[in-house]
Amino acid sequence: MDLLLFIATVILVSLSGVLMPGPVFATALAEGRKNKHAGLHIASGHAAIEVPIIIALFFFGKFELGAVKTIIGFAGGVFLIYLAFSSLKEEDEEKTIKGFVAGFALSSLNPYFIMWWLTIGFTLAIKANSFGILGLVSLIIFHELCDYSWYEFISLFSYHGAKFDVIKEITKATSFILLILFGIYFIYDALSPIFS
């Protein structure tokens, strides 16, 4: 995998998660009605908990993990497919916390967020090691860019009174397809060395 393909993978895998409606989406939508840049504050809180995790997983991924890498990759693929089907029944729940605190709390207290990084995110961090520090920087920048762009988009359009029913359904469908495709890819990538 070359660097450009890795970056494209990071963007698409990240989007598959960020497009999924959930509590952070609902908070960005609710706060955006009063503050058009609420998404930036929420994404900053999210990044505050996420960037240290990315760095830790990157350096942990430097160790020779052997079969553990295969297990993590396989688990990541299974979890992506699970997220795809769970997104079909996901209900948004508006939270009372706001801004940076909302982004931080809704991320750190979300079991799906933790599982995402222990499986899917860890697989990306392991792959980032192939490119050294450039891989780490690329993973952080392009993953966080997806978060910042989407939540700012949500809050900005909410501020201008846009209705999100149609957009929500389109993004949910897009997320579902990406989650399924990358779930299959992660499982194939994890198991292919065993059968080759």
Task: Describe the model.
The protein is an all-alpha fold. Helices cover 80% and strands 0% of the residues. It has eight helices and no strands. The longest helix is centred in the last third of the chain and has 31 residues, at 165-195. The two termini are 17 Å apart. The mean pLDDT is 82.
Could you provide a short overview of the structure?
This protein is mainly α.
How would the blueprint of this fold be written?
Elements: H1 3-18, H2 23-32, H3 38-60, H4 67-87, H5 99-108, H6 111-128, H7 132-159, H8 165-195
Helix pairs in contact: 1-7, 1-8, 2-5, 2-7, 3-5, 3-6, 3-7, 4-6, 4-8, 6-7
The count of helical stretches stands at 8
Low-confidence stretches: none
Query: What fraction of the residues are assigned to beta strands by DSSP?
Result: under 5%
Largest sheet, if any? none
Shape: globular
Mean pLDDT score: 82
Helix percentage? over 70%
Strand elements, count: 0
Q: How far apart are the termini?
A: 17 Å
Which structural class do you get from the secondary structure elements?
mainly alpha
Task: Give me some keywords for this one.
196 residues; mainly alpha; 8 helices; 80% helix; 0% strand; globular
